[in-house]
Design brief:
The chain has two helices and twelve strands; from the N terminus they run ααββββββββββββ. By secondary structure, it is of the alpha+beta class. A hairpin with a 3-residue loop joins β1 and β2. The longest helix has 29 residues.
Length: about 200
């Protein structure tokens, strides 16, 4: 019996050493450094950019006068918002973006007092305000006889009845005078496409 136990001793020792070796390997594997952030980011799928004016967002015009520049913003570099006017009459549309050299941020606000939720198209008197953001310069006519908006399409985007994709043309017959200044800006024609949310406040 003693001889059998002596023969099994080497085998038992081998199994013990083998178990210890595997345990050490497992501990070392757990201590491996995690993938760096760049490696993880490379494996992650790219997210689609957020388009603030929808897939059809655009604004194109030529400005003359105190601000003289060609504006051609598309859905990738244009910000827009559309909501009811504060007094409950009609709606206002806001478009903003940087001009080509990136040094000037402009915002254009189109107020359309007679536009109603169910209007699909038509011509409306409008008040237009041009803002040099960051510089505090405002250009705007004081009445509704200066500019005209021709809404060419107003397409409902969902079942809420509030959100629309809206597009049209703007025409201003006289320059917009500078508020608290002596200069002006002319906007003979403008093409636009953006979003209007009647549920916004």
């Amino acid at each position: 019996m003693q001889k059998i136990q002596n023969k099994c001793a080497p085998a038992r020792a081998f199994l013990i050493y083998r178990g210890l070796f595997l345990t050490v390997l497992a501990v070392l594997a757990a201590c491996e450094p995690a993938q760096d952030a760049d490696s993880i980011a490379a494996l992650a799928p790219e997210e689609e950019p957020v388009l603030l004016c929808g897939n059809e967002g655009r604004l194109s015009t030529e400005l003359y006068g105190a601000v003289s520049v060609d504006v051609d913003w598309d859905k990738n570099d244009l910000e827009c918002a559309g909501m009811p006017r504060p007094n409950g009459r009609g709606a206002r549309l806001r478009f903003a973006g940087k001009i080509a050299d990136g040094d000037l941020q402009l915002a254009i606000i189109i107020a359309i007092p007679d536009l109603e939720r169910d209007a699909q198209n038509g011509e409306f008197s409008a008040k237009v305000t041009l803002i040099e953001e960051g510089n505090g310069r405002f250009f705007s006519a004081s009445d509704l006889n200066n500019c005209l908006v021709d809404i060419t399409s107003a397409t409902r985007l969902d079942d809420s009845g509030d959100r629309y994709s809206i597009a049209g043309e703007l025409f201003c017959v006289t320059p917009l005078p500078e508020i608290n200044g002596t200069s002006s800006v002319s906007i003979p024609k403008m093409l636009f496409s953006g979003l209007l949310d009647w549920g916004s406040s």
